[in-house]
Amino acid sequence: MASDVILTALLLWLMPALLSAGVVKRQAEDEQDLEDQPCRTYTLNGLLHLDCANRGLKDLPDDLDYSAQVLLLSNNNFRTFPPQLQNFSRVETLDLSRNYLSHTIPNYLQDWDTLQTLNLSNNLYDTWISNGRKYSIRNLDLSKNKINAIDDRSFTTMPNLHFLDLSENRINDLPPGVFSEAHNLDSLILSRNYFSDVPAFQSPSLRSLHLSSCQIANLNVDSLIGMGSLVEIDLSINQLEEIPDNLASYTLQELNLSYNSINSLTDSSFSSLPHLAVLDLRGNEFRDVWSTSHFSSNPFLREVYVKGNRWSCEGFSVNLLLTYEFLTKEPSKIVDRESLICYTPSNVTQLSWQQAYIRTWHPVEVSTPSFTTIALMVGVIIGIVITSCVCRGLVAVTSEPSRPPPETTQLNLNGSAGQPRVESVILRVPLREDLPPTYDEALLMPRLNSSFHSLPDFVDEEEPRNYRRSRSIGDLTEHRPRLGDRRSMRRPIEIHTRIAIDE
Ligand SMILES: *[C@@H]1O[C@H](CO)[C@@H](O)[C@H](O)[C@H]1NC(C)=O
Ligand SMILES: *[C@@H]1O[C@H](CO)[C@@H](O)[C@H](O)[C@H]1NC(C)=O
Ligand SMILES: *[C@@H]1O[C@H](CO)[C@@H](O)[C@H](O)[C@H]1NC(C)=O
Ligand SMILES: *[C@@H]1O[C@H](CO)[C@@H](O)[C@H](O)[C@H]1NC(C)=O
What we know:
Layout lengths: L1 H35 L3 E5 L2 E5 L18 E3 L20 E3 L21 E3 L7 E2 L10 E3 L7 E2 L12 E3 L21 E3 L18 E3 L21 E3 L19 E3 L21 E3 L22 E3 L5 E2 L5 H11 L13 E3 L8 H9 L1 H4 L4 H28 L40 H6 L3 H4 L31 H20 L1
Parallel strand pairs: 2-3, 3-4, 4-5, 5-7, 6-8, 7-9, 9-10, 10-11, 11-12, 12-13, 13-14, 14-15, 16-17
Antiparallel strand pairs: 1-2
Bound molecules: 2-acetamido-2-deoxy-beta-D-glucopyranose (4 copies).
């Protein structure tokens, strides 16, 4: 009896543990299944994807959905094109990047007339040779391989080729006719290769050419002649020391020469680039400020980048200001105006071209107030404060304590004899307890000395209390707010007025 109870209790106690162990085991099996399943099928943007990427696969399984349109096989261990590929026929994108491929592409790809994009980036190709078949490929990514040899016929069989990425390879030259049959080639990336010259191949359709980071030291005057549609060329991060005179392209709009070692321009540098619009010359070795005549043949120039050059503002020539105006006049060609900075001579380092120029030729206008000006201003203010204190003291002495002094006074505009005179205004100054007098009060003050003795005579008790003298003779009768309201608004005006007095 007792043992039964104990057994039941034990079972009840163990039940959850047993159950959960089973569940865990089943879950583990499910995950195992998923991992055994090398490919995932899903639809994205209306295209059937077969995703076998990142699995370390050496081979593909046989039971695949061969109707897939996007085939993702990147980051596996394929050394050859998997034979199962033959079974596909609707593929638009084949991504075989990050594998160990080095063989020419298989013949059956010529039957894939839907194929748009072939990604063979990050494989082991060291040459790229045509096998004579025609492919419909539009975008070909061959970046990050070890390609050093490309022959005349390499791309002759890809009439639809639109985008070609050959960056990060070991190419040091391209035969002139290599793209002559790629009539649709639009964009070519040759960055990070071993060129020492800009390759002068022909491509009537090419619009965008990237040759960044290639150790290029030579740009020939006719390098771009064979590219009759070229709009944009990136030659950044190379070793160019000069731009050849009359470098010619009738179509070129964007020229990126940033981070080279160019130190001068001439009037012929851009004279044969009539459509030049964007010019990047950041990080070069320019010192002498350009002349506007260097750009006289470039009416469409609209964006110029100049940061990171060590401009010499020595001499502060008129040319400096003209070029500054040419570059910054609205609409400004310089995106970053602050990049027009003088590097030498040392007394203008870090100043903008304009500041350096103005400071040299018009030192007073731009310079901060000189010591004498400040001293003068301080002196005047102190004088006024002292005067106002003296006045306040006098009023306190001369006014009768039982009769509060009137706050306001009505002035006669003409100041004619018999009427309260202008001097009577001065009486009110001390009443504004902690405030120095206004501009007009200050103007009137010196006269105070001569009439101190008669001050009490001018106090007119009958005047309406709400009228106070105003700041200029022209609006003496103007109805002004009372003292308390005015106090806060007086100070800023006063500072302005002081400066006016100094001048
Ligand atoms: C797919 O290709 C493999 C390898 O070439 C072949 O053995 C298999 O029969 C093909 N399957 C279909 C359905 O065509
Ligand atoms: C090719 O694959 C690489 C790496 O997998 C990727 O970075 C690159 O964008 C792809 N190229 C194209 C043209 O899609
Ligand atoms: C020029 O090339 C540099 C470096 O490659 C890049 O950072 C910059 O954005 C390019 N300039 C323009 C205008 O595209
Ligand atoms: C800076 O120094 C140069 C001489 O190197 C001198 O001609 C110029 O007037 C100086 N400019 C200013 C703003 O002090």
